[in-house]
Amino acid sequence: MGILNESKNDRITQLKAFDDTKSGVKGLVDAAAGLPVDVPEIFIRPPDELAEDLELAPTSLRVPAIDLNGVGDMGSSRREKIIEEVRHASETWGFFQVVNHGIPMKVLEEMMKGVREFNEQDAEMKKGYYSRDMERIVKFNTNYDFYMSTAANWRDSLLVDMTITYDLDPQELPSVCRDSTVDYLNHLKKPVDTIFELLSEALGLEPDHLKRLECEKARNLACHYYPACPKPDQTLGINKHTDASFITVLLQDEVGGLEVMHRNQWADVEPITGALVVNIGDLLQIVSNDKFKSVIHRATGNKTQARTSVAVFFHGVVTPPKIYGPIEEIVTKESPQVFREFTVKDYLMKFYSRGLDEKSGLNYVRI
To answer: Is the pLDDT of residue 242 over 80?
Structure first.
């Protein structure tokens, strides 16, 4: 027991020493000044995790890509085809990509550019945003679960929490990515409305059903930056996890690294220029009474290139507390209710009090 405690204390000391620099993973890379980067032990995954990966065969299967061209023609055969593609992807993959979603390429490029420029600026400029204060709306740090996970992840994140205020004061954002972030979030509203309509219809409901549940109300923005990693085979950019959201919409660059668990295999979410990645979160799996699946996913590192991604999590109504549960119209004698009711606030509190690599939070509310 003494050796275990000593090892744990040593790890906590290393974590705190890293955290106190307020420079993130990019700070380690910058400190190397062009020389090989020494990856600290706190980022190396446990042997049992690495061994588990060797047992999982990679797959050539690819996450479905859905063309939204013609989606506005209500009742058309084209829209019906898109709805069927969304239903199939949501039931079998829990992930899909959308193209022709209506956001101009320039807006997407500027968003990614802003995130890169924030992370690649002088470390002193970023330190003012470095924080682990859960109450702070805009903050920068390395891994929200830094002190809980079995291994720290090789990434830095600029986080914008809009779960309590719902509205964002642009002045709170770093100036280098302020305009691009506001522009992107504004442009995202319309395609997100469309996606919720399609998901509603894919569940056999009226197009506005999920909208009436206010599933898009609270948002969390996570702008991730993954510096090139000398040991991508021993580390991860993000541990395997499911999302505590109704849906998550991800913009990723061309580097890639996002992987989805499908049929007990890791499938790549291959970057498609201009596409948005959509994944079903825990909350939608619950309200759909297990019809749509919130699946495990992760991000791997890249040895030669930095990767950038921007995730927007849609959490529904957090405050004042709103009761959610399986949608009545979906629960039948053939498909009895499998989840109990919950509030998003309670679900998020449980989610954030554990490490990302622990079991799905769905167990909290499963009957």
So the answer is: yes
Give the chain's domain count.
Answer: 1
Instruction: Give the number of other CB atoms < 10 A from CB of residue 141.
Output: 19
Query: Which of 298, 295, 282 lies closest to 339 in space, CA to CA?
Result: 282
CATH code, domain carrying 126:
2.60.120.330
Q: pLDDT value at position 157?
A: 97
The pair of structure tokens assigned to 34 is: 């062009």
The DSSP letter of residue 32 is T
Q: Is the pLDDT of residue 9 over 80?
A: no
Pick from 276, 287, 275: which is nearest to 200 by CA? 287
Q: How many CB atoms lie within 10 A of CB 320?
A: 7
Residue 35 counted as domain residue: no
**Strands 95-99 vs 65-67: parallel, antiparallel or unpaired:** parallel
The boundaries of the domain holding residue 81 are: 59-364
In a domain, 32, yes or no: no
On whether residue 319 sits in a domain, the answer given is yes
Check if the beta carbon of residue 187 is closer than 8 Å to that of residue 153: no
The mean pLDDT of 170-178, rounded to a whole number, is 97
Partners of 66 in beta bridges? 98
Tokens of 77: 């055969």
* Residue 51 tokens, joined: 């061994």
Would you state the structure tokens that stand for residue 254, as one six-digit string? 């061309």
Q: Read off the pLDDT of residues 181-200 as tens digits, 9 standing for 90 and up.
A: 999 999 999 999 999 999 99
H/E element, 125: helix 123-127
Which tens digit of pLDDT belongs to each residue from 151-160?
999 999 999 9
Q: Are 298 and 243 in contact (CB under 8 A)?
A: no
In 173-251, alpha helices (H): 178-202, 209-212
Mean pLDDT of 118-137: 93
Whether 26 is in a domain gets the answer no
